[in-house]
Amino acid sequence: MTTTIGLIGGSGALGGALATALLQQEPFADLDLWISNRSGAAPEFASHDNVYVTSDNQKLVTACDIVFLSVPPAQFKKLKIDARDRLVISVMAGITIEDIAEATGASRIVRAMSSPAAAKGLAYSPWVATAKVTSKDREAVRKIFSAAGITDELEEESHLNHFTAMTGPVPGFVAYFAQCMVDHAVKQGIAPEIAERAVRQLFLASGQFLADETATPAEQVQAMVDYAGTTAAGLTNMIESDLSDAISEGLLAAARKAEQMR
């Protein structure tokens, strides 16, 4: 049986990334993918025979079993569709399940957070579901978000705003830390292009180590401190500073912004 998935806003950065992940990973044996946008065209997916594009959101809903909402949160209030018999998955920051139910008539709702890293299969996509979401629905959600990277089901909807802050931006806060390191190197007289190349490689390697190692981040930090080398000196200084509090405050500011976007 063909699985039909529709992406309202499927040409945006996040919607397009999810579409790319679905088409590359093919999590369903037989998939038809619908995309709706204002132009009714998606030339980036023209080579795929199983992709259909429309400017009519309701036409997409009627054609699909699973409907993704991936419009900018500021445009959500203009979205009025009848999706009462569909599984509706939202990846819109800050828009609550209650808001989604009111705008769509749906009761089988999944609210999720993902990122454009989905296009490379590197996104982290947590989600929370309403009571009406079935076990079959949950299986489909896991397949979709596993095609985009790693996924977890959450119990608390409010936690999604924190993941919007932590894992939604790519590279976001990580890029800021990298920028600080590049700026430091340049102040020491190192050529900017060399500093940037070195820091990019550091973050590439660090991300791979963090993903592959069984030790927690805290355990990896402690291991470096215990080694008592040059990195330990730097880490000890950072740990004793207010850096941790500053990072936490930044993440809380982003989460508060997500709460205000409805």
Automatic annotation (TrEMBL):
<dbReference type="InterPro" id="IPR028939">
    <property type="entry name" value="P5C_Rdtase_cat_N"/>
</dbReference>
<dbReference type="Pfam" id="PF14748">
    <property type="entry name" value="P5CR_dimer"/>
</dbReference>
<comment type="similarity">
    <text>Belongs to the pyrroline-5-carboxylate reductase family.</text>
</comment>
<dbReference type="InterPro" id="IPR008927">
    <property type="entry name" value="6-PGluconate_DH-like_C_sf"/>
</dbReference>
<dbReference type="Pfam" id="PF03807">
    <property type="entry name" value="F420_oxidored"/>
</dbReference>
<keyword id="KW-0560">Oxidoreductase</keyword>
<keyword id="KW-0963">Cytoplasm</keyword>
<dbReference type="InterPro" id="IPR036291">
    <property type="entry name" value="NAD(P)-bd_dom_sf"/>
</dbReference>
<keyword id="KW-0521">NADP</keyword>
<comment type="function">
    <text>Catalyzes the reduction of 1-pyrroline-5-carboxylate (PCA) to L-proline.</text>
</comment>
<feature type="domain" description="Pyrroline-5-carboxylate reductase dimerisation">
    <location>
        <begin position="157"/>
        <end position="261"/>
    </location>
</feature>
<dbReference type="InterPro" id="IPR000304">
    <property type="entry name" value="Pyrroline-COOH_reductase"/>
</dbReference>
<comment type="pathway">
    <text>Amino-acid biosynthesis; L-proline biosynthesis; L-proline from L-glutamate 5-semialdehyde: step 1/1.</text>
</comment>
<protein>
    <recommendedName>
        <fullName>Pyrroline-5-carboxylate reductase</fullName>
        <ecNumber>1.5.1.2</ecNumber>
    </recommendedName>
</protein>
<keyword id="KW-0028">Amino-acid biosynthesis</keyword>
<dbReference type="InterPro" id="IPR029036">
    <property type="entry name" value="P5CR_dimer"/>
</dbReference>
<keyword id="KW-0641">Proline biosynthesis</keyword>
<feature type="domain" description="Pyrroline-5-carboxylate reductase catalytic N-terminal">
    <location>
        <begin position="4"/>
        <end position="94"/>
    </location>
</feature>
